[in-house]
Amino acid sequence: MGQSATARAHTNIALIKYWGKQNPELIIPYNSSLSMTLDHFYTDTTVTFSTELTADQILFNQAPADAATNIKMSQFLDLIRQQAHFDLHARIETINHVPNAAGLASSASGYAALAAAASKAAGLDLDRRTLSRLARRGSGSATRSIYGGFVEWQRGTNDTDSFAVPLQETVDWDIQMIAIVLNDREKAVASRAGMANVVATSPYYPSWVQTAEAAMPKMRAAIIKKDINLVGQLAEQSAMQMHATTLSATPPFTYFEPETLQAIQVVQQLRQQGISCYYTMDAGPNVKVICTSQETPQILTALGRYFKPEQLLVAKPGPGITVQQ
Question: Which Gene3D superfamilies match (predicted)?
């Protein structure tokens, strides 16, 4: 067998959402976004290029990947093969510590880990900005998982200027998230298809882009001030504005489930009681609660009336990519 490398990448949850591509092939977004990398959810990927292989072999949690995943990941590897100037096939072994396709950013950690492991195994020594650009070609949100803490994806206009940059990698203030895993089933409308439908048909989409861009400097300032209430308010607004575009698409669709609304209602009730907590959601039913560690026990108690303990996962700001050869 040939050269091998292993990488670990953590998921990130966008506080100002990315939603919609102006260039679907290069995955160039219409708006910039800002996220927090999480310590609890991550992907470990090992890539080995070998002269003995006649096709790429891809294993997810020790099981062969489906045909669509095989094609997509092989095409992503082609980008690395082109840069490395060879045509060797690879064996990819991925262990996902994230429910797949359930709105918990499994593709973000997955493609960030794949980009880092495959490029290192191919003999490429990419800096983090170049790695961020590469990861973006697999999944837009993966561009942010190269870094830890708070991360900004600058939308750019082309392949060279659309990448993530760290805003605050060492988070020295009290902020975390409670992920409410309502279900880990694959969602009915994939993020990629949902975005494309919204961009093409929602009359509100231009307003989404404008409001998302206007929220970016406000979120940066809130993070620098360590103002969890302002961070939470802006994140909540961004999430609901994003989900409003799905309801206005043709045909309309939603990622909400009954339990989603129940979780949101609990958060709103807690806030009325003076607890600093705010909700956010990606393209899936699961709710993430932004809060402090100090108030987490009270929030978990309230959520525990409706959800099982194993559905409530506490995550803190997490690290960026790590690679070993």
Answer: 3.30.230.10, GHMP kinase, C-terminal domain
